[in-house]
Write a structure and sequence with these properties.
The chain is of the alpha+beta class. It folds into 3 domains: 263 residues, GROEL, domain 1; 94 residues, GROEL, domain 2 (2-Layer Sandwich), CATH 3.30.260.10; 150 residues, GroEL, CATH 3.50.7. The protein is elongated and about 100 Å long.
Length: 535
């Protein structure tokens, strides 16, 4: 509300709230810090899990940062920006979601101290950006090369990602499995690896050790007719996305039948059309049929007589993966079923897993899509296993795409902090205060690792700094021994992109929140439910 000659002028809608200056900044920073603090305890091999219960009573047990923040019902706009960091990190790299959010929270915490010293927010933002640019440069200098032949290193990258997660129970077996899966779908000369070509199929039952890689596809469907063969070796697979049914006309049409023989002729013609459809499939040499749409009962009967195994209503995503795995083409019409359009597999088999039928398409010659069948004692175990394996697959793919990795265990962060403090001195001006604050903020990662392992964070940080000052660039915190250890030798390594993406999204969000000095929240009438008392 403004005043003109003593008369109040209403600018904002009645009931709107406005928070300005220091007040707005401190509220936003507090919201972001609260989110970071909520997931900080999940970081590292000794991090704890969170149990999240939604309004429907569904339970999620996880220590995956992105999943925790996605499941939390967050209303505060600044806190929502922290959720976006985790989301971006998860989509770009798959791992390091907790690190990215914790780093952003710490950057804001350090910025708050500078704001108290009357350092202008735009100066802090400039200093943070300079520090981030320098950090990328330093990280590139710390990175080591990796190629698809370095299977041992790739396994260590997958193992580092899975440590401390639900997938750790059968870590050795699962790391082999993730590396094999990614290497199978990697095409020569292509720099981008699409891990969507790896299908994760969950089935409760057995234990995590029963998880296995299928060099082909697993389809959660059953044969359409009990008379069809259960097992077909040397399968020729037809992939069709049109229905095996008599098509209905687009417009309403009536057929007038005046004599019984006309009805018989009509039914015979329908039967003949269905038989022709089946004959076209069998003539091509196909003995397995995957159909995206329905299969008429009569067509099922003819297919069973021709000893063809058929599966109907297969998801479009599964059809695409089947095409990649078997080398077949997805056909839109039955007119064009030719032998060279068919896919191939050594074995197509229907098996009962946990009381449900599933179709296994195995022994594909050169599959560009594979499946991992995940098993576990309860639904929560299988879900957490899926999250762990997804992270493992993403980091292996990132390492192969970029060909670079760095040592983990907080070693990269300590080295960055050390180098950035030297860099701050060379910058001069007030920005150097922000660069020093950025360096201090980076140390939150090894500090959190120590805290979560029950070690003294100050002692650990002092020991790590001392090791790095002596030139031990890869010295990180071994949370099991409670001392600085060469992380490269210990096999605790991560893709370079995990670090660069965490710094990039953390810095961008922190600077954006810092620059807000005015929050105008519209009145309750125009606000989403639950936001009324937000500001």
């Amino acid at each position: 509300m403004a005043q003109l000659g003593g008369t109040p002028i209403l600018i904002l809608k009645e009931g709107s709230e406005r928070t300005r200056g220091k007040d707005a900044q401190s509220r936003n920073i507090l919201a972001a810090k609260t989110i970071a603090a909520a997931i900080k305890s999940t970081l590292g091999p000794k991090g704890m899990d969170k149990m999240l219960v939604d309004s429907m009573g569904d339970v999620v047990i996880t220590n995956d940062g992105a999943t925790i923040l996605r499941e939390m019902d967050i209303e505060h706009p600044a806190a929502k920006m922290m959720v976006e960091i985790a989301k971006t990190q998860d989509e770009e790299v798959g791992d390091g979601t907790t690190s990215a959010v914790v780093l952003a929270g710490e950057l804001l915490k350090k910025a708050e101290d500078l704001l108290d010293q009357e350092v202008h927010p735009t100066l802090i933002a400039t200093g943070y950006r300079l520090a981030a640019e320098k950090a990328y440069e330093i990280l590139n200098g710390l990175a080591y090369d990796i190629t698809p032949k370095d299977e041992d290193l790739l396994r260590k990258i997958a193992a580092t990602s899975m440590t401390g997660k639900g997938a750790e129970v059968a870590k050795d077996m699962l790391t082999d499995l993730t590396v094999d899966a990614v290497k199978t779908i990697t095409e020569k000369g292509v720099h981008e690896i699409d891990i969507d070509h790896i299908k994760l199929e969950k089935k409760v039952g057995g234990s995590a050790e029963d998880t296995k890689l299928i060099s082909g596809m697993v389809i959660d469907k059953e044969r359409v007719h009990p008379g069809m063969p259960k097992k077909i070796e040397d399968a020729k697979i037809a992939l069709i996305n049109s229905a095996f049914e008599i098509e209905k006309t687009e417009v309403d049409a009536k057929i007038e039948i005046t004599a019984p023989d006309q009805l018989k002729a009509f039914l015979d013609e329908e039967e003949k059309m269905l038989k022709d459809m089946v004959d076209k499939v069998t003539a091509s040499g196909a003995n397995v049929l995957f159909c995206q749409k329905g299969i008429d009962d009569l067509a099922q009967h003819y297919l069973a007589k021709a000893a063809v195994m058929a599966v109907r209503r297969v998801k479009e995503s599964d059809m695409k993966k089947l095409a990649s795995a078997t080398g077949g083409k997805i056909l839109t019409t039955l007119e064009e079923v030719r032998a060279d359009d068919l896919g191939g597999a050594g074995l197509v088999d229907e098996r009962k897993i946990s009381g449900e039928e599933m179709i296994f398409v195995e022994e594909c010659k050169n599959p560009k899509a594979v499946s991992i069948l995940l098993r576990g004692g309860t639904e929560h175990v299988v879900d957490e296993l899926e999250r762990g394996i997804h992270d493992g697959l993403r980091v292996v793919a990132c390492a192969l795409e970029d060909g670079k990795y760095v040592a983990g265990g907080g070693s990269a962060e300590i080295e960055l902090a050390l180098k950035l403090r030297d860099y701050a001195a060379s910058v001069g001006g007030r920005e150097q205060l922000a660069i020093q604050a950025f360096a201090d903020a980076l140390e939150v990662i090894p500090r959190a690792l120590a805290e979560n392992a029950g070690l003294d964070p100050i002692d650990m940080l002092v020991a790590l700094r001392s090791a790095h000052e002596k030139g031990e660039k890869t010295a990180g915190l071994d949370v099991f021994k409670g001392e600085p250890t060469d992380m490269k030798k210990a096999g605790v390594i991560e893709p370079l992109r995990v670090k660069t993406q965490a710094i990039s999204s953390g810095t961008e969000s922190a600077t954006m929140i810092l620059r807000i000095d005015d929050v105008i929240a519209s009145s309750s009438a125009g606000m989403p439910p639950g936001m009324e008392g937000e500001y």
